[in-house]
Amino acid sequence: FHWLEDSELWMNGPFGDFDARHCEQSVTAGAKTLFKTVKALEKREDAAKVLAIAKDIKQQIDEFQPYVPIITGLRNEGMRERHWNQVSELAGAPVNPEMEDFTLKKFLEINILTHVSTISEIGERSGKELSIENQLTGMKAAWESVKFDCSEPYRTTETYILKGADEVIGLVDEQIVITQAMQFSPFNKPFKEEIDEWAEQLLYVSECLDGWLKVQRAWMYL
Which of these, 168, 150, 148, 149, lies nearest to 159 by C-alpha position? Predict the structure, then answer.
């Protein structure tokens, strides 16, 4: 825990360069440690100078704590241009990673602290939206390696049939469930059209596979 160095970085350093989780954990742990330290030093008569230093650092940490929700909110990896626009509207000034002085100090100068609760909500929502975005990307990527095996003819018929469809059916069913959950998510607005389109494609694939296998089974029993 290096409060003097870290606090300088968090206040004046490039806002996009430091770890918000480390900041939150350090401030929380530091506040608890200094509280106990001050209490212990107050019981000693020979620790006046050390006590004064501990009280000073404790005060600095206590004063910094209200800034932590701003840091964790705006440093959420889900923050996109639409979220920065919302923050800028609240602040009444441009706030985004491209601004000239992208620092916590600058945020405080434009009174962003007065909107800390809303900013925290924006950051949290951006994280939820990122989760949906990643899920969509992951589901689509899962299909890149999917192959339909029609490599061998059925017995002596010289007619090729689909084999090993269970894995594909399992993937379709799993993704249908996930996509339906996304459709009811309160955080799906930026991706609503894409989610609905993906849901339609999955249902279409499911119906095609179901029809294909029914016809194939009937033909195989002829």
Answer: 150
